[in-house]
Design goal:
The protein is α+β, with helices and mostly antiparallel strands. It has helices at about 15-25, 265-285, 325-330, 350-365, 370-380, 400-415, 420-430, 440-450, 455-465, and strands spanning about 1-5, 35-40, 55-70, 75-85, 90-95, 100-105, 110, 110-115, 120-125, 135-145, 150, 155-160, 165-170, 190-195, 200-205, 205-210, 210-215, 215-230, 235-240, 240-245, 250-260, 295-300, 305, 315, 340, 435-440. The structure holds zinc ion. Zinc ion binds near residues 2, 329, 333, 352 and 355. It is an enzyme of class 3 (hydrolase).
Length: about 475
């Protein structure tokens, strides 16, 4: 994310998988009787204890949603393919707000469910689910989704706009319009099939499928075939001018600008070409681009930030012009944040420090402002040195501390270990951990292995200790 204040397959329900699940659910006579227990209602993040759940691992989300921009109502069915990681008597999904569920099934059979607290959808399948078995959960629901407006973290989730809606889900918005295991360490592939009145455009993560029109309604399909954390899923529905191109390497590049936004002549082309240029340049620094397409969406959404939604960031046009360094930030996140995602939100500097450093590198490469100069200016100008970069606290995950001091820590590391090791790290860290989950501890160990040095006190000073580090 970068905020205003700073700127400044369709679900392949293979018959086999389904029947295996049913078989497991009914149990087989030979094995010792399993002890079925409930999955945990949270995934264990200290900042967001209710987010995510335990007892299963999602492989794929199939979201089918019809949207009426007149009423802002949706009518949807989300089907989830998951694998039990324990013998499950029941399990939770995260699902919040006023949407009404009309049907819920597990492996094709109606399942009992209750809704508990702000976001727990507690599901009891007709029979227990054996550890290791695949199962399919299908939830049909309807209503008008409501965004989240967190006093500390701002707006996320389903946001109504003048001509449609935009869904931005970091950190806690996904559950406002689909049932989800809303934790960064349960990545899954996605298909989003969205039906809207003909004339409107739908954009989402990944690659577009065929578009079909029937009786005044058009259905768009978008597929993300690489693992994606739910906080990085995205939808944009409205009046958009879409530009298609490729990067120099031939990667499909789809950008869009909301028609209501006052643009300079040719801005659609410039936005598309700058995106291609930045992705190409960042690939030379960070290794092969991790997804099968790229792009960006300039939207009139009014949230006050840009967000690194996977493969295709969303830029709120009221925040900033879509200039190269902002693109470098959100596209840099495709490696740092999207392909590599922290297990816990306390480690978000691994996203924001690297994304901010991407801006600094962009300024050096394209605007002749040396990184060291940006570092010195930031170091001299930073007023607030309280707080821990690698554990800023729940309400401070989007604070300047995480961004600026995160990037400063990287530049300080570069000065300490030298350019050769530093740029090796910039390529190898995202390559070795591609599509995975990471922690600050892992990062420190990685750099120490790479350099054969004990950097414990260096990282202690820059990441864990409040106060201005001496240079
Ligand atoms: Zn960011």
């Amino acid at each position: 994310m970068r905020g205003a204040k700073r700127s400044r397959g369709s679900l392949l329900i293979v018959a086999g998988a389904l029947s295996a699940g049913l078989l497991a659910a009914t149990g087989t006579a030979a094995a010792a009787a399993p002890r079925y227990t409930p999955g945990a209602p949270g995934a264990g993040d200290p900042y967001f204890p209710d987010m995510g759940n335990g007892g299963y691992d999602v492989g794929h989300y199939d979201i089918r949603l019809a949207f009426d921009p007149g009423t802002q109502a949706i009518d949807a069915t989300t089907t989830i393919l998951a694998t039990a990681t324990q013998d499950l008597s029941r399990f939770d999904l995260d699902f919040q707000g006023p949407l009404t569920i009309s049907r819920l099934s597990v492996n094709g059979r109606n399942a009992a469910y209750t809704r508990s607290g702000a976001q727990e959808l507690v599901i009891t399948p007709p029979g227990g689910l054996r550890k290791g078995s695949e199962f399919v959960v299908s939830v049909s629901y309807a209503g008008v989704p409501q965004k989240i407006d967190d006093p500390a973290l701002g707006v996320s989730g389903w946001v109504a706009t003048k001509d449609g809606a935009v869904a931005l889900n970091q950190p806690i918005g996904a559950a406002t319009y689909y049932p989800v295991n809303d934790t960064t360490d349960d990545k899954a592939t996605y298909t989003q099939t969205i039906t809207v009145p003909t004339g409107l455009t739908v954009l989402a993560n990944g690659e577009p499928g065929p578009t079909t029109t029937n009786n005044g309604r058009t259905t768009f399909r978008w597929t993300m075939n690489r693992p994606m954390a739910s906080e990085l899923s995205m939808l944009a529905i409205g009046d958009y001018n879409v530009t298609r191109g490729t990067t120099a390497d031939g990667l499909p590049n789809i950008t869009a600008i909301g028609k209501s936004i006052d643009t300079k002549p040719g801005q659609g082309k410039v936005f598309n070409e700058t995106t291609a240029q930045v992705v190409q340049w960042e690939s030379s620094l960070y290794g092969r681009y991790p997804f099968d397409s790229t792009g960006g969406i300039l939207a009139d959404v009014g949230v006050g930030y840009a967000l690194e939604t996977q493969s295709r960031p969303v830029y709120d046009h009221r925040t900033s012009d879509v200039d190269g360094d902002l693109l470098a930030h959100e596209l840099g996140h495709q490696w740092f944040g999207d392909s590599l995602t922290p297990v816990h939100w306390s480690d978000i500097w691994l996203n924001e420090g690297f994304a901010t450093y991407s801006e600094w590198l962009y300024q050096e490469k394209f605007n002749n402002i040396p990184v060291q100069k940006t570092f010195a200016k930031t170091y001299a100008g930073e007023k607030d040195w309280s707080g821990k970069v690698a554990d800023p606290g729940r309400d401070h995950i989007f604070d300047d501390l995480v961004y600026n001091r995160g990037a400063m820590a990287l530049q300080a590391l570069r000065m300490k270990i030298g350019d050769q090791a530093f740029f090796q790290m910039l390529t190898q860290w995202p390559t070795v951990n591609r599509y995975g989950n990471v922690s600050t501890r892992q990062f420190i160990e990685f750099v120490e292995r790479l350099t054969h040095r004990d950097l414990g006190s260096f990282f202690q000073t820059w990441l864990y200790q409040p106060g201005k580090p001496a240079l």
